[in-house]
Structure formats: C-alpha cells, structure tokens
Prior knowledge:
The protein is α/β, with parallel strands linked by helices. It is built from 13 helices and 13 strands. 35% of the residues lie in helices and 29% in strands.
Amino acid sequence: xxxxxxxxxxxxxxxxxxxxxxxxxxxxxxxxxxxxxxxxxxxxxxxxxxxxxxxxxxxxxxxxxxxxxxxxxxxxxxxxxxxxxxxxxxxxxxxxxxxxxxxxxxxxxxxxxxxxxxxxxxxxxxxxxxxxxxxxxxxxxxxxxxxxxxxxxxxxxxxxxxxxxxxxxxxxxxxxxxxxxxxxxxxxxxxxxxxxxxxxxxxxxxxxxxxxxxxxxxxxxxxxxxxxxxxxxxxxxxxxxxxxxxxxxxxxxxxxxxxxxxxxxxxxxxxxxxxxxxxxxxxxxxxxxxxxxxxxxxx
Length: 299
Ligand SMILES: Nc1ncnc2c1ncn2[C@@H]1O[C@H](COP(=O)(O)OP(=O)(O)OP(=O)(O)O)[C@@H](O)[C@H]1O
C-alpha cells in the first residue's frame, strides 16, 4: 500500500492556482526532499497531505484514507513548520506531556534527551521562545512523535548552523532506528541531500521531477570553455542552463543521455572543462524561467 497517493491534485486560493494537476505516489519508508523555488506550492501540498487544507480537485490518499479532517490520519501524521501555534497557556514540559498522550509511538526518552541537549527550559512558554528555539522545540515534537508520516516544512528556519547540523544528524539517527515516511521541504538542498533517498522537485504547482537523489546527481553535466567551441558542442543537446563568463568563456549545463556521455572525451580534447553539477544548483537551473538566470536581466 502507498503511504501517499496524489492524483491530479489542484488547489485554488480564489483566483490563484497554487497546485496544478499534481500527481505522485510515495511508497514505504523513506526520506523525500520536497524542493522548489518560492511559491512553487510546497507548503500547499504538504498541508493538504497533513489534512489541514482540502484540495480543490483531484484525489489525495494517506494510508488509503482522505486526509482532510480525518482523525486517523491526524493521529498517524505530524506536520511541523515555523508557524506552528501551540497552546499559549501550556509550558514546554506540558506540551510534551500532552503530545505524548496523543501520539501512539511517542518516545519520551528521545524527547527528554533532545530537550536537555538543546538546553530548553521546561517552564518556558512556546510563544516566548526565540525563532531558532521555537524551530528546535518543534523539531523535537516532530521527531519524538515518531509518526508514520512525518512532515517537516522548512524546519530549520532561524536555527543557527550548529543546531541545523545537529537536527539533520538526529533526524537521520532516529530514522535509522525507527524508519518511517518523512517529507522534508527545504531551500537548502546542499545541506539535506545526504539524508534524502528521493527528491520531488516542484515548479509552478506542478511536479517537475520525482527521482532518487542518486539519479539527480547523474542528471546533467556542466561544460565550460571557449564560447565558439562550446556553442558547437552543445548544439542538438538539451541545454538546461547557459551563462557567459567574461568576453570569450561560456558555462553551460546539459542533460545527460548516452550520446552526451559518449561525447565527453571529445569535448575534453577540444579544451572544454567537464564537471558534474551539484544537486542544489541543478534544481535552481531546472526550475528557472530563463536559461541564463539573473544575468538575463542585465543582458
Ligand atoms: N492563503 C493563500 N491565499 C492566496 N494565495 C496563497 C495562499 N497560500 C499560498 N498562496 C499562493 O500559492 C502559491 C504557492 O504557495 P506555497 O506557500 O504553497 O509555496 P511554497 O513553495 O511553499 O513557497 P515558499 O518556498 O516561499 O515557502 C504562491 O503563489 C502563494 O502566493
């Protein structure tokens, strides 16, 4: 059984179409990165999966159930973002206690261990925490609930670099100890890519790619060199990105296929530099509306 099934999901906010016939399935226990530019529709689809929003049309199933207003889905999933509002009359210790009563797989040892490690004050109120501390506390809720479907929507907002690193490590360690379906949306693919098994790349409310991270790493090749030679070499190839570097040099990213791979040696002989493209840059190029990025504004 698929954990998540989305078929032709569309979501309108009045006249704004935030999701446009989005279809994908996620099966089994894995960590999937939900990647996309600002406004791509990541939060919208994640809130629909968590049952907080209802799709305008299309079919959404979580554990074979429609998630909207569904207590079974609520009890088995958790959605963590930086705008969570938690009861203002409860202390952090009381919130953890309440959560432990609601989530069947709640792990108190993990919650207490993380709480102490991050030096949070049990008598503090959530609304009085700093931005980074709020995200840290929310992350503790998300991990300790050990929900079958765990959704982290930009969970590291406000966290400093050391806390972000600790969070990613804690996420990976706890996932290995207790595998579940985790969705992680992030603008920092370079920071999270080692955690991910799959990447779901969104653009303009649609699915652009849904592939294993290992395939994303092999998806394209970058070529740099003398413009006249490079232009000839990239002809008839699928160019994902192209930018001029100085008067005579050009940088281009081309989609890999067997013909491209066969011609790499020939490109090197012609003096072109060939290198892999990092996943984060590639996602930016793939979801850009222009081939040259910000340079196109100035050209
Ligand atoms: N409540 C709302 N009312 C109107 N439009 C909305 C609402 N929420 C989101 N949108 C619009 O829907 C589109 C998708 O928004 P969404 O928040 O899902 O994107 P996102 O990928 O999470 O963006 P970001 O990376 O900036 O957080 C955007 O154009 C946004 O302006």
